[in-house]
Amino acid sequence: MNADKPQMNAVKAKATTSPLPSMNFFHYSSPSTFFGLAGRLAPWFFALAALLAVAGLYVGFGLAPTDATQGEVYRVIYLHVPAAWMSMLLYFVMACYGAVAITFNSRLSAMMARAIAPTGAWFTFVALWSGAFWGRPTWGTYWVWDARLTSELVLLFLYFGFIALANAFDDPRRGDKAASLLAIVGIVNLPIIYFSVHWWNTLHQGSSVKLTGTSMHVLMLTGMLLMTFACWMYAIGATLTRVRTIILERERRTRWVRSIAGVA
Amino acid sequence: MKAVLARDLRLAWQNPGETLLTLAFFVLVATLFPLAVGPEPDLLRRLGPGVIWVCALLAAFLSLPRLFAGDYADGTLEQLLLSPQPAAAWVSGKIMAHWIATGVPLTLLSPLLGLQYGLPFEALAALFAALALGTPVLSLLGAACAALSLGARGGGMLLALLALPLFVPVLVFGAGAAEAGATGISPAAHLSLLGAGLILAGVGIPFAVAAALKIAVD
After folding, report:
1. What is the pTM of this model?
2. Above 0.95 for ipTM, yes or no?
């Protein structure tokens, strides 16, 4: 931990002397500079999320037609599908940050991985929960031991395992590295979830949205995509906000944190 | 690798309590199920493969916390990591020793339990083959989790949280193979998937374990 400090100060010093700080590729890889950037960006992402969510819900509930076979119940997809997509995407992003943290031994990327995990776990939970409420009227049951449902549940436990392992050590840096490695090992589950409906012919239906075209009504698709971007923006905003608190907690003994906290 | 394998096997041989405990646990838990769900032969024949798989999985999990803990505590692990041999090689030796001490006895004992559950011969053969292919994967995945949680607070519970979700695919395909054997379908598809998993895990996991151990002794 002590070995990092001079390096960080060096980056800071370089940034203040250079006339164009944005030219330095690693300018924002220091927690102290990223702290400010995250603080400036997070409200924008939250605002975008709110805007997109309002638009998505209006299209989804006001404009999109009722589904021919499922009736009004299908409207759960405006939350369910984006949440399920985000649960997988966030795990992937988390594992990427973990890989960067292990290869370059960087502190900020490990903090980012930690900051993403709770949001990812929430989206996984929301996907399972909304799916259960959709399954009750359409499938006739809240839960089946279907391949996709089971693997999504395993994903939730992987998130829990990541969070537990990251916090299980007295030395936070060790927790960072161990959890990052776990995230990389656990990534084998992602293709299993994604392709489960193709590989096993079980109750959960295949996707209606493909790169080659879609079998959905255009308004339904618009609503769902708007909600997806809303969830995406929310995830970024929440992650940035959370990483700020993690940075503050980790760097509480450094001079720059003391100076913004007003402690001499 | 051979030296570490021989050493761990000798340690297990001199101290057979752990292996016997694992086996006793396996048999005991498998005995509890008929007592709990009732002794109807049809029901037991239906449940048998799954129950035996879950019991084998839990029994294999039981000895994981001690896989690296002893060597970590007395400094052997540090010495091994300092040695010029690649870490992944002797890590494979340790994992193999763990499998021989737990997985192999479990596999050998499983037909006996299968008979108690009244499984037909095809199902016994499929169960045996599935356990023979599946238990090394359990040892490999478990070793990765044991190395990651080395020296962590709340070791055992944390290890369960990490390892059991990763065990799920092995359980699904293993029990699927035994199930297919019981219903007269060829278990070859499930066994091939288990074998593929074993090859992938056997090649990749030792490197992950070595990395995790390096983080642990850092």
Report:
1. 0.81
2. no
